[in-house]
């Protein structure tokens, strides 16, 4: 709906008045509370965190679109994802929510911060608009100083983001790509936007081949073992097969 002249928030909410950008379950708070009480990971998982019961109630303020995406995530074991936004030229990575709940901005890295920074950098450095030496600032933030990537919470806190939910509930690594200063580009500009992002999208998808891959098998039967938990020393975030 609308255009930039009518305000950036126009069209952000659904017909029911729900902001989808903040509509996923807040799993961060439960994890951090458990960490503060030394319950992770022996009594409280640091991965595949269950959805709170209140969020599943029929009268919970959860959009049908959000529920559909969560069902989709639970049905398929995605490992890499990106969502596309407009309004800036930067790639953000989790966590999107600040650990100090009353702070609007705070560096809040995940246990896999190195991987997320790499994924964001892969996209940002191959994006023609972000990498251009002639690019102008969209607003007042100069993201070129940080290589056009930023920890989401260190930019502005977003409780209930899909990125944080993906990481904590499904083990999928997800980033947000702010791919244009203009939230409402004209149709004639779309071919150029595609060229700006084509190589970035391809390189980003290729990153699924990084890291350890394989099948966890039973030593006697050689059958694959479902839901095996893999822990890596020094990384406080396990992965489930």
Automatic annotation (TrEMBL):
Family named by the database record: Belongs to the peptidase M14 family.
Keyword Metal-binding: yes
PROSITE patterns to which the protein is assigned, alphabetical: CARBOXYPEPT_ZN_2 (PS00133), PEPTIDASE_M14 (PS52035)
Protein species of origin: Heliornis fulica
Keywords associated with the record: Carboxypeptidase, Hydrolase, Metal-binding, Metalloprotease, Protease, Zinc
Top-level lineage group: Eukaryota
Record-linked SUPFAM superfamilies: Zn-dependent exopeptidases
Stored Pfam families: Peptidase_M14
Keyword Metal-binding (UniProt): yes
Peptidase M14 domain residues: 1-208
Name of this protein: CPXM1 carboxypeptidase
GO MF terms held by the record: metallocarboxypeptidase activity; zinc ion binding
Cofactors (names): Zn(2+)
Any one GO cellular component localisation term in the record: extracellular space
Active-site residues (renumbered): 178
PANTHER family assigned: CARBOXYPEPTIDASE X1-RELATED, PROTEASE M14 CARBOXYPEPTIDASE
Transmembrane segments: none
Gene Ontology biological-process annotations: proteolysis
């Amino acid at each position: 709906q609308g255009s930039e002249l009518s305000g950036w928030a126009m069209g952000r909410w659904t017909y029911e008045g729900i902001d989808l950008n903040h509509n996923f379950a807040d799993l961060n708070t439960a994890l951090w509370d458990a960490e503060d009480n030394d319950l992770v990971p022996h009594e409280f998982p640091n991965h595949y965190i269950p959805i709170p019961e209140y969020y599943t109630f029929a009268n919970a303020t959860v959009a049908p679109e959000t529920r559909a995406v969560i069902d989709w995530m639970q049905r398929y074991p995605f490992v890499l994802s990106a969502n596309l936004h407009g309004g800036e030229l930067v790639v953000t990575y989790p966590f999107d929510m600040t650990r100090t709940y009353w702070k609007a901005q705070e560096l809040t890295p995940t246990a896999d911060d190195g991987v997320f920074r790499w994924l964001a950098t892969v996209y940002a450095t191959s994006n023609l608009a972000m990498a251009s030496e002639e690019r102008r600032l969209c607003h007042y933030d100069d993201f070129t100083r940080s290589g056009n990537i930023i920890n989401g919470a260190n930019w502005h806190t977003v409780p209930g983001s899909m990125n944080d939910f993906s990481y904590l509930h499904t083990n999928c690594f997800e980033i947000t790509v702010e791919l244009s200063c203009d939230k409402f580009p004209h149709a004639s500009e779309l071919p150029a936007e595609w060229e700006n992002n084509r190589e970035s999208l391809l390189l980003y998808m290729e990153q699924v081949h990084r890291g350890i891959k394989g099948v966890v098998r039973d030593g006697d039967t050689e059958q694959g073992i479902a839901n095996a938990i893999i822990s890596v020393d020094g990384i406080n975030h396990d992965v489930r097969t």
